[in-house]
């Protein structure tokens, strides 16, 4: 009986591994084609597309990370984090492509944002020649990625902050830090955030990998002259010419290497920060166990985190409100757009 239990999964794994292995072998053979790499480097779009990929992927990841820190700190301090996070399922259920389409419906030159103020304030009776979506700077793609990745990181953080053992310990240490003279924002930055950050490094890595390789959102709202390298690779792979397909395989390999290097740098960065924190905590005088732990955590906190958290607003969180409002506006635009036809600019509502 134990042999039967093991044989079933092995056969299933072998059944799945055969086609995947054959595909990887074919891709590997194409990736070693020198002519494909020469065509990739000779293409005038390659380097600009790669630079746009790095810019949009890194910028959206950094913005998502800062936003998550801001929302978690403000919600934890005001004891409203649980109520805020109850909205996450609806945000997570919004598809990436749907988010990009909804933003285009609002932000495009013929979108609702311009229709709301035209022609009374702008004087436009036709869409202006503006780059508000598919802009050459990648700002639309960064906005779309930021809106989709923040709920994911918040959801991962919620799984940690709502664990009963961690929640009780962190609340006790947070309260103790305030009794030692720390302001609420400083206590969060020195006690909660240093312990939460290492638990979010792999989800953050997933966010970065997606931002560097996204295709569907980049096709809808991303730059087009040139597009990101992931979009270029997808277009080349879809071409009927074999050399162009090989060029797409080479681009995909280059993009894979980029993700691997970025991942290694991120992991090394987390380890360096952790090592610096441990080095900074040497020489502390032990007091009681809880007080000593809080003292160590206070010493480990980077200065920029304290600077950022001192300026956290204690009034209702504007960033979280903006996030919810944007998702609601996108859902409204998608709902109306799914049942309406075309209507001319500057008409606000379809007839």
How would you characterize this protein structure?
The chain is mostly helical. It folds into two domains: 1-32; 35-339, MetI-like fold (Orthogonal Bundle). 74% of the residues lie in helices and 0% in strands. α6 (96-107) crosses α8 and α10 packs across α15. It is globular and about 70 Å long. The termini are far apart.
Major sheet description: none
Tally of alpha and pi helices: 17
Strand content: under 5%
Low-confidence stretches: 281-290
Second rung of CATH, namely the architecture of the largest domain = Orthogonal Bundle
Q: In terms of structural class, how would the helical and strand content be classed?
A: mainly alpha
CATH topology of the largest domain: MetI-like fold
Mean pLDDT comes to 82
Distance between the termini: 69 Å
**How many distinct beta strands?**
0
Q: Any idea what the shape is?
A: globular
Give a nutshell description of this structure.
With 351 residues, the chain is an all-alpha fold. 74% of the residues lie in helices and 0% in strands. The termini are far apart.
Helix/strand layout:
Elements: H1 2-31, H2 34-42, H3 46-77, H4 81-85, H5 88-92, H6 96-107, H7 112-115, H8 139-161, H9 164-179, H10 184-196, H11 201-213, H12 216-221, H13 229-237, H14 242-280, H15 289-300, H16 303-310, H17 318-339
């Amino acid at each position: 009986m134990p042999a039967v239990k093991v044989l079933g999964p092995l056969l299933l794994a072998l059944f799945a591994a055969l086609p995947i292995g054959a595909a990887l072998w074919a891709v590997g053979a194409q990736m070693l084609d020198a002519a494909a790499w020469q065509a990739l480097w000779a293409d005038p779009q390659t380097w600009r597309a790669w630079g746009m990929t790095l810019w949009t992927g890194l910028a959206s990841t950094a913005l998502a990370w800062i936003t998550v820190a801001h929302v978690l700190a403000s919600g934890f301090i005001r004891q409203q984090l649980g109520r805020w996070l109850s909205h996450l399922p609806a945000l997570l259920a919004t598809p990436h492509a749907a988010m990009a389409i909804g933003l285009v419906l609002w932000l495009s030159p013929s979108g609702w944002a311009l229709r709301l103020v035209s022609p009374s304030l702008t004087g436009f009776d036709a869409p202006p020649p503006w780059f508000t979506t598919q802009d050459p700077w990648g700002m639309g793609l960064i906005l779309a990625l930021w809106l989709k990745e923040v709920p994911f990181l918040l959801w991962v953080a919620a799984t940690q902050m709502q664990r009963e053992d961690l929640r009780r310990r962190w609340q006790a240490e947070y309260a103790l830090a305030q009794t030692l003279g720390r302001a609420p924002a400083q206590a969060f930055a020195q006690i909660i955030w240093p312990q939460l950050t290492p638990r979010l490094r792999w989800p953050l890595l997933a966010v970065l990998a997606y931002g560097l390789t996204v295709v569907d959102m980049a096709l809808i709202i991303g730059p087009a002259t040139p597009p990101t390298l992931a979009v270029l690779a997808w277009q080349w792979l879809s071409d009927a010419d074999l050399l162009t397909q090989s060029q797409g395989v080479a681009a995909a390999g280059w993009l894979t290497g980029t993700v691997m290097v970025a991942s290694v740098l991120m992991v090394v960065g987390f380890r360096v920060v952790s090592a610096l924190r441990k080095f900074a905590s040497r020489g502390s005088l032990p007091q009681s166990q809880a007080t000593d732990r809080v003292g160590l955590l206070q010493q480990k906190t980077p200065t920029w985190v304290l600077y950022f958290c001192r300026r956290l607003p204690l009034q209702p969180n504007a960033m979280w409100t903006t996030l919810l409002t944007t998702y609601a506006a996108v859902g409204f635009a998608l709902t109306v757009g799914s049942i309406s036809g075309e209507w001319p600019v500057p008409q606000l509502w379809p007839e």
